[in-house]
Amino acid sequence: MIRQLFWFIGAIVALLLIFFLHIAVANFFLFPINYINVIFLSLVWLITYRGAAFSLWLALILSFLLEIFSAAHFGLNMIAMTISLYFVAYFLTNIFINHSWFIVFLSGFLGVLCYRFIFGMLLYLLKFFSRGSFTSIYKMSVNALLEAGLTAATLAILYFISSLVIKKLNPKYISVIRNV
């Protein structure tokens, strides 16, 4: 019981830490670094290491927190993030079976592009039902490519570093090294 309580409190603290780190990166860092999507990065990393079910539940909570502070219509970020993370989870489990740093980079890149594409399509769909202007497709495409590239590169670096640490802490790996 106590262990589950500590796990629950740890999960809440981790969610809030990811959310505040995303807000800090988006608002306080300079030009190229502020395009890194920390929430998407951490969720794809969790999909890679823990599996899709746990990560997709966390995605719903984090995207709800993101919706509260977003200027877009309520629900657009949540729908786009959930669908794109399902896309990434499907690709990582069925198509990209080998979890090398390049596959993680590619899945992060395609996932962010899918997220921005769905978000843009939902914005364009809502444009027809309300008044207002919309930004150009060119500007949205450049921003999406920049965000996808930086997020995927950061994800690949994080995956590489964490795989080295996890590999060194794995007891099976340590026993193989001693026998050699």
Describe this structure as you would to a colleague.
It is a single chain. With 180 residues, the chain is an all-alpha fold. It is 81% helix and 0% strand. The protein is built from seven helices and no strands. The protein has helices at residues 2-28, 38-50, 52-68, 76-95, 101-127, 137-169, 171-179. Helix 2 (38-50) runs parallel beside helix 4 and helix 2 (38-50) packs across helix 5. The chain is globular, with a radius of gyration of 18 Å. The model is unreliable at 173-177 (pLDDT under 50).
Give a topology summary.
Elements: H1 2-28, H2 38-50, H3 52-68, H4 76-95, H5 101-127, H6 137-169, H7 171-179
Helix pairs in contact: 1-3, 2-3, 2-4, 2-5, 2-6, 3-4, 4-5, 5-6
